[in-house]
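Escalation from tier 1.

The customer reports that the assembly of two entities below gives different structure tokens on two consecutive runs. Tier 1 could not reproduce it. I'm attaching the input and our single run for tier 2 to review.
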Amino acid sequence: MFLNLLPALLLMLALISIVLFLIPDKLLIKYMGEGSGLKGWLIAASLGSVALIPGFIAYPLCGILIKSGVAYTTIAVFITTLMMVGILTLPIEAKFFGWKISIIRNLLSFFGALFIGFLMMVFL
Amino acid sequence: MKHIKKYIFPLTFLAFIGISYIWHFATGEQIGINFWLFFKEMILFLPLMFILIGLFDVWVPREKIEMHIGAESGWKGTGLVILLATLQAGPLYGAFPFTYILWKKGCSIKNIFIYLGAFSTLKIPMMTFEIGFLGLKFSLLRTLISMPVFILIGYLMEWYLKDKHFEVNLP
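Tier 1 run:
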């Protein structure tokens, strides 16, 4: 099982390391700092869907983003998609659930994240 | 030959990283550092996950799973799945193999997707990080708001899949 997954896993890890290089912290601040409305959330959700960062790096990064002026609601959307939506992990997810179900789960999670951002705005 | 073909991209990638280090190509070096970081995470968590799956397979009988988190389990079952997921750690792709064993043992569709939701958004080991960097109020609020949202996603997935032939494959 592990050996069957290994090529897909290595491919995913290689792509993530390239994506993370292409999206440095400064760029995240620039795009997510633009507003906390729907536009900011959509940008945060898209970035979070592409990126895949382990929690122990993601939270310090979010701490930096907050200090740089990114809204808390935008951070909530970013964190949620970062963890629940994985475009780069889709090929692996599809090996377990099939493409259709994996895409539906990711889409639902994407909109779920936007909804979480909205609710955070209501309660914060 | 088939096996080598599958590894062409990873091997090309590693060759690129290797050459970058020899020639001190900064872009390649940075990507190499990133790769090593993620690779370490995978090597650390995935074997643990596979051991857990193995133990779960041998020790937990199907009847128990069906009774506690199966189709008839209700809210208590959902609570149990969430508890199970929050105690685990690691990246989301580590949870997929575990859903296979849950499915095999008779866990309900709803609870499988609730497990994935809880695994990704609520992890007790990660809570300390979140509180440390983003504050208690934010962390609690995000947790409380995320829970109903991914439970709803679980219900939606079950509603969509209940009349279809749903199965989790083992690659």
